[in-house]
Every structure is written in C-alpha cells, then in structure tokens.
Design goal:
The chain has 316 residues and is α/β, with parallel strands linked by helices. The chain folds into 2 domains: 238 residues, Spore Coat Polysaccharide Biosynthesis Protein SpsA, Chain A; 70 residues. Helix content is 50%, strand content 15%. A 7-stranded mixed beta sheet has the order 3-2-1-4-6-5-7, with helices on both faces. Strand 1, helix 1 and strand 2 form a beta-alpha-beta unit. Helix 9 runs antiparallel to helix 10. The protein binds uridine-5'-diphosphate and magnesium ion. Uridine-5'-diphosphate binds next to strand 1 and helix 3. This is Glycosyltransferase.
C-alpha cells in the first residue's frame, strides 16, 4: 500500500458522498495503491450508513466506527493506527481542506520532507470570532509550548511512514496530533492554501469544544503553567523583603500602631513561602507528567550504517 487517506467524521452524513467523489479524483494517480479510511466518531446521524453506501461503490474505502464519540484527535488516531500506507494523508470530512493539494504535498515529500502540512493563509467563510480566537490560540500556544508548533496549521497534512510510526510510538492519552508531529521532529515543511468555508453541515467545534481543545494542547505540550508558582514566589519574596525594610523604617520613624509591623511582615513572607513550596510541587508534578507521557526519548532519522531502526521497535 502506498497511500492512505485518513478522515475523522462526526455527524457528516451530508458531506460524505461529495467528499468521497472529490477525494477519489484527487488520489486517482495512485488509485490501485491507495486506501481511504473513514472513521465514524460515534455519530448520531446517518454517517455510518453513508460510509457503508460509499464503501459499496468504492472497494478502496475502509470504514471504521468507534463505539462512542471520542473526539476529533482520538478518531484521527484510530484511523492512523489502521493505515497501512507508506504515505498518509489526513484531512477533515467537510472539504475545508482541498484534497487537490495532495499533488503538491507529494511533490514536496519526493524532495525529502517527512511531513508536509497545509498552512492556512486565509480562512474563508468563518466568523471573525473564530479567526481571532484561532489566531490568538496558535500564538499563545507557541509561547507556552516547549517545541515550536507551526502557526495556523491544522491536521491537514501528508506524512510518511517513519514520522507516523514515531507519533504512534507516543502512548500519551491527551493527543494533540499536530504538536506530536512537531515534537517527533524529522524534516517538515508547510504549503500555503486558502481554507474554504465548510461545504455542508456545521462545525463540530463550538466554543466549548474549542476551549477544551486549547487547554488540551497547552497542557499536553508545556509544563510552564506548573512553574508559574515558582516565578510568582520570587516576585513575592522580593516584595516581602522590600516590605520588611519599609515596615521597620516606619516602625522606628513614625512609631506605627503596635502589631501592624508583625502582621504585614508575616503575611508577605508566608505568602511568598507558600508560593515557593507550591512551585516546588509544580516542578515535581511537571516531571511526573513528562514521565507519565512515556514518550520515546528520541527517534533516529539517519544512520551511516544504513540501518535506521524501525520506530515500532522503540515501543516495546
Ligand atoms: N470531528 C470528529 N469528532 C469530533 C469533532 C469533529 O471526528 O468530536 C471531525 C469532523 O467530522 C471533521 C473534523 O473532525 O471532519 C473537523 O471538525 P470541524 O470541521 O467541525 O472543525 P472546524 O473546521 O470547524 O474547526
Ligand atoms: Mg471544518
């Protein structure tokens, strides 16, 4: 198998027929060596029926149905685990990402890139609010994250087998797939495209889901929030020291009310001390978190002995 296309679908009954016909055209050059994997993420409409119907008319199509809704990133993971291709193409069911870009992505991959992702130069037909929050999200995420994550980039991408195996060798449960590819490393490049409006149906990312996604992404790729307390404690202890000077000075010079000095000093010192101990806990929790994710320590991308190890073996 040369090419696998993986598409998560939740309540996309309206999109599937159009999606399958446009996609089969886009992958026509690799027709006999390609598979299309549609993952039904616990839809409550007739998505599964639509997948079965499409499958009946298209032998290269594989349908997978999850027992319940597990979310976009998990559904995508399910499809990626099934994919057998040497190259794996991911896109959404709603045709916001043009399947025709595959040709360009293939071209870049032929030139040695392991991951070719689509970068949205423009988003059509989306609310100002979605654009603004998405813009902020990608910038803030990058500021927080421990690895640079490409801006304005979704999961729309072509990846090769070794980079996919690297991502699948990361057993973490909170899966922020575009970040995982960034973390895995290997040679990556972006291709700009204009993101079309959703053709049919409505977005599966209402505000609440977007918030959850953003928090998942942030916590999955950064332990910086846990270190906040340490930083605050430095500020706080420094202020406590300044306060001490001021308090003692006032006590001597202005003969302030009895009890005032000791209360102010105690409050400022102990709040600093509490933040510091919280920060220490944060450091340990951060380390536990990294250990719990249990990612491989590294992936080998080249070896002069010509024996690049199979990434799957690292999992054992
Ligand atoms: N999706 C999914 N499970 C979910 C939410 C979304 O499989 O719980 C799929 C959805 O069917 C679509 C893709 O993920 O193929 C992206 O969702 P959507 O287009 O609604 O997001 P948006 O483009 O509005 O950010
Ligand atoms: Mg969409």
């Amino acid at each position: 198998m040369y090419l696998s296309v993986v598409i998560p679908c939740m309540n996309e009954e309206a999109s599937i027929p159009g999606l399958v016909s446009r996609l089969t055209q886009a992958i026509a050059p690799w027709k006999d060596r390609a598979e299309i994997i549609l993952v039904d993420d616990g839809s409550t409409d007739a998505t599964w029926k639509a997948i079965e119907t499409a499958q009946a008319g298209c032998a290269q199509l594989v349908g997978i149905k999850l027992s319940a809704n597990r979310g976009h990133q998990i559904a995508l993971t399910a499809g990626l685990e099934v994919a057998q291709g040497e190259r794996i193409f991911m896109l959404d069911a709603d045709l916001q990402d043009p399947p025709e870009l595959l040709v360009d992505m293939m071209f870049m991959m032929d030139r040695g890139f392991d991951v070719v992702y689509g970068r949205r130069s423009e988003r059509q037909g989306e609310t100002m609010f979605k654009k603004a929050t998405a813009h902020l999200f990608y910038r803030f995420l990058n500021a927080m994250s421990d690895v640079p994550i490409p801006q304005d980039t979704g999961d729309f991408r072509l990846v090769n087998r070794r980079s996919l195996d690297a991502v699948l060798a990361m057993p973490e449960k909170a899966r922020f797939i575009r970040g995982m590819f960034a973390w895995a490393g290997f040679k990556q490049v972006g291709i700009e495209y204009i993101r079309a409006p959703r053709a049919l149906g409505e977005t599966k990312y209402p505000f609440r889901a977007m918030m959850r996604f953003a928090i998942d992404a942030m916590t999955a790729f950064s332990t910086k929030p846990l270190k906040l307390a340490t930083r605050l404690s430095f500020v706080s202890l420094f202020m406590a020291a300044l306060m001490a000077v001021y308090v003692i000075y006032s006590l001597v010079v202005y003969q302030t009310a009895p009890g005032w000095a000791s209360v102010v000093l105690a409050v400022s010192f102990f709040s600093g001390a509490q933040l510091l101990t919280l920060g220490i806990l944060g450091e340990y929790i951060g380390r536990l978190y990294v250990e719990a994710k249990d990612r491989p320590l590294y992936f080998v991308s080249d070896d002069t002995r010509d024996m690049v190890p199979d990434v799957k073996r690292l999992r054992a």
